Amino acid sequence: MVDKTQIVRELSQVVDPEVGVPITEMDLVDDITINGESVSVSFHLTAPFCPPMFALEIAQDIKRRLLALEGVKDVKVSMTGHFMAEEINRRVNSVPPAAPAQS
Q: Measuring CA to CA, which residue among 80, 75, 69 is closest to residue 93?
């Protein structure tokens, strides 16, 4: 079973593409809930008008990284305080996360 320490460690790899700093260092993660193999993460961005493509990228990265952890079968991501939060939450939670870019 996954624990909060593992989740936080993985979230520390999610970087805001605009500023290049992990979301954990900027204190953007509001809540982490673990219920068996399901994880819910609530977060906010630095500004309510952050470019939607960056907001979606962060949300997808959270979901992709947490689903890759052993013991995690389901991830729900909830972004708050953004002008497109409802649409981005719907998109990230209704489709499989995009595969990471290959270097």
A: 75
The CATH superfamily holding the domain 4-94 is Fe-S cluster assembly (FSCA) (3.30.300.130)
pLDDT at 103 over 50: no
Q: Scanning the structure block, which residue is given the tokens 């493509």?
A: 53
Quote the distance between the C-alpha of residue 13 and its chain's center: 10
Res 100: pLDDT:
52
pTM greater than 0.85:
yes
Would you say 79 and 43 are in contact if contact means Cβ atoms under 8 Å apart?
yes
